[in-house]
Amino acid sequence: MEVSVDRDGFETAMIHDLVDFEGMRVLEVGCGDGRLTWRYATAASEVVAIDTNEKRIRAAIEACPLELREKVSFHTADIDSFDMGDDSFDVAVLSYSL
Amino acid sequence: MNALSRMHRCMKKDGVLLDVHPQPENSHIEIWQNGRIHLLGEIDQSEDHAEIEAARVHLDSFRNGGLFVEEQLGFFELLEHHPTVEHWQDNWADNGYRLLAEPSLLESAKQLLKSGGGELVVREPVRATALQRLDPNSNTHTP
Fold it and tell me: Which of A38, B15, B74, B89 could make a disulfide contact with B11, Cβ separation 3.0–4.6 Å?
């Protein structure tokens, strides 16, 4: 049985209160299995999500909803080695990883 | 170049940094059962508190250094629901989290669930901060 996290949507409500993700290009650092990613990816135009844990990245890729697969990419990487480019993201999310 | 510097560089002008991380406080454990909430106590996450405080100091240095400015701050509780104590223990082990709880708390949880069903809930206080990226070469900031 899967663990149920944020069933009442407190986290989801908070992040959408703080940030307008609509049409944004988003970088998420520390994405894990995508748990937070699903909360905003529908609104975003593109999501690049990284985590150093390969097992959790594989889980994220497997769990990614079909409708998000065109615009969400997951990568096993750390922030020091990943080529993020310059001046390329509207929003950066530090997901329980600072 | 450190992580926050790299993030600043990869973000567009006026980009937003959203930082979500736990408060340096212990999470609380509850059993939700038949419309009632049984408060069982806290788990020991003190090992993480120093790390969280250090990370905040680091984030503050970027605010103070003119790379980001805090726009909004919010607090919420992240609730994690587990059907059994064992499910909680296995899930945290799979994710590499240390679970430090008094044996009496775990036993109380098991007994309550065994006798009346319901679920175990981990209540974790979390802080979320939205920061606006600044151009350190510019003297203006548009709120």
Answer: B15
CATH number at residue A81: 3.40.50.150
Q: Is A93 on the interface with B (CB under 8 A)?
A: yes
pLDDT over threshold 90, residue A80 = no
Residue A71 falls within a domain, yes or no? yes
Q: How confident is the model at residue B138 (pLDDT cuts 50, 70, 90)?
A: low
What are residue B17's DSSP bridge partners? Answer: A92, B131
Let me know: does A79 contact B17? Beta carbons within 8 Å: no
A91 at the B interface (CB within 8 A)?
yes
How many Å lie between the alpha carbon of A48 and the closest alpha carbon of chain B? 12
Domain with A58 in it:
22-94
Q: How much is the ipTM here? A: 0.94
What is the pLDDT, as a whole number, of residue B34?
94
CB contact A49 to B (< 8 Å): no
**Residues of A with Cβ-Cβ distance to B59 under 8 angstroms:** 98
- Residues of chain B with Cβ-Cβ distance to A44 below 8 Å are none
When divided into structural domains, chain A yields a total of 1
Give domain status of residue A14, yes or no.
no
On whether any CB of chain B is under 8 Å from the CB of A29, the answer is: yes
| C-beta atoms surrounding A51 within 10 Å | 23
